[in-house]
Structure formats: C-alpha cells, structure tokens
Design brief:
Helix content: 10-25%
Radius of gyration: 23 Å
Order of helices and strands: HHHEEEEEEEEEEEEEEEEEEEEE
Strand order of the largest sheet: 2-3-4-5-9
Structural class: mainly beta
Shape: globular
Length: 285
C-alpha cells in the first residue's frame, strides 16, 4: 500500500495527529539546521571606547584596505588597492613613507611577520605574497615576492580580504570575505616558506562579511566585519568570546582593516582614507 492510499484510509483525527507530528518534526529540523540566524540575533554586542575618532589621512586619497602593527619599529603598515601601495604610518596616522607595489593587483590584507618580512593577499587572484620591506624601500616587485596560490579565484569583492600572522605557531591565517566562512592556516618553516594550507570552517561566526582579521598572542582571533560594523573575538576553536559595535557612520567610514597593539588598542582603517583607534570598556590602559 502506498503512503497516499494509507493516508486516504486513515481517520481524520489520526491524520490530524500525523500532521501535527510531521509539523513538529519539520520545525525541529528547521531549528537544528537553520538556527544560526536566530542565535546571531540573540548575541549582544558591547560598546567600544573611542581613543581616536575616525580621522582622514590626507596623503591617502582612497581605497585604504589593510593594516598591520610592526612591534619592531613601533609603526603601522597600511595597504591600498588602486593604486596598489603600502604606507608606513605613525600610531596616529601620520604618513612616514610610501612603497609602490609593482605588478600587484587588488591588494587587500597585510601582516607583519618578523624583521622586514611581511605577508599580503591579492583578493581576486587568491594569491598570498611574502616579501621584505627594507627601511629604504620605495618599491616592491611582484616577481620578487614568494607567492602561494590559495585556491579558486574569488568573485568580485568576494576573495581573500585579510591576513594575520601568529608568531607562536609560525602560522599565517586568512579568510575569504563571503560565506561560508572558512579560516585558512598556512604554516611557515624556519626560512618562512609556506607549507600546506589547512582549512577550518567557522560555522559559529555570525557576521555579514569578513573584511579583516588579526591574531592575538593568547591564540584568539579578532574578526572585522565591514557590513555588520562589528568586531568579533573568537577562541582557538572558532567559538565566539565577545563582539563589539563600531561607533561609526557607515556612509563616511567603511572599515576594511584591523590590527591590535600590545597594550590592547584596536586600530581600524577603511575607505576612503580613515583611521580610528578603540579600546574595550574594561581595558584600563
């Protein structure tokens, strides 16, 4: 007997019970597999303390995208795309020098590794580049960089956005901008040459996009979301620890890059040419 025949011969009361049971099962499956949007809505974001209000950097005209802190020089290194260029900045955003990136395309994230060594990602090409920026450098040639293909080229504005280095594990981390969110880990050997790429899905990451990321010494990962205007801190397993609202006007400031200083300050840059500094409310420094 087919299910249709069985259903037609079942008393109406029994059919009602079956219908209710099937509806409850369907609802249970819905919450099991599609619960993340609801859990995201339930998550509370904390405010941030503004140390430096969003400030324009006059020497940079547009497309400010990535940022890293160099603890050895005590300065920031920022990257723009179109034109592809790196700027060394003081902590308050004063331009100290600029370095042209020749042959690079769609440069987004940047991270200091050690000494004069830096990593950078080209978004749509899905390429990780490692190269030196010496103290007297005025230009970097793409052909001279150590390059690693990260996989399939990204769609427009959906490729790799940020990169961050963990000196404890000698590992670079990067992520694509869009969903599904997956963290890529690239270990470096003793000569800072990249090894095999390892991936870890981050299903609990509740943001609209990923614009940048930065790794903390305690192993946690800070994610900047431009579309959500939030910063989310994840533990080593990818579970959320805290989230923060960025007190910005998204029409004037599109956050694209984030880094953190040893004293816990959170420095954010973005389009067109804005830099801002924040701290968590419980940070007494």
């Amino acid at each position: 007997m087919s299910f249709t025949q069985y259903w037609s011969k079942t008393p109406s009361l029994s059919r009602s019970k079956w219908a209710i049971l099937m509806a409850l099962c369907g609802l249970g499956l819905f919450f099991l597999f599609v619960k993340s949007p609801f859990s995201c809505l339930e998550r509370t974001a904390e405010p941030l303390k503004e140390i430096l209000a969003p400030t324009a950097i006059p020497e940079i005209s547009k497309n400010l995208s990535g940022l890293t802190w160099n603890p050895e020089t005590g300065t920031l290194f920022a990257v723009t795309n179109r034109p592809e260029r790196i700027y060394e900045l003081s902590l308050n955003g004063k331009v100290l020098r600029s370095v042209n990136l020749r042959g690079f395309k769609d440069t987004e994230g940047i991270s200091h590794i050690a000494g004069t060594l830096f990593a950078l990602v080209e978004e749509r090409k899905s390429v990780l580049c490692i190269f030196d920026i010496t103290s007297d450098a005025t230009a970097i040639e793409h052909k001279d960089a150590l390059r690693l293909n990260l996989g399939k080229k990204g769609e427009k504005n959906k490729g790799f956005e940020g990169v961050s280095y963990d000196p404890v594990t000698r590992t670079l981390y990067t992520m694509r901008e869009g969903k599904p969110f997956v963290r890529l880990a690239i270990p470096l050997d003793e000569h800072f040459r990249p090894g095999s790429v390892m991936s870890k899905p981050l299903p609990e990451l509740c943001v609209k996009d990923v614009a940048s990321l930065v790794h903390d010494p305690d192993g946690s990962l800070w994610i900047l979301s431009e579309a959500s205007a939030q910063v989310v801190q994840l533990d080593q397993d990818g579970s959320e620890l805290r989230r923060f609202d960025l007190p910005i006007d998204k029409k004037k400031f599109q956050p694209e890059g984030i880094t953190r200083t040893p004293d816990g300050q959170m420095i954010v840059v973005g389009e067109p040419n804005i830099l801002a500094i924040y701290a968590t409310i419980d940070d007494k420094k």
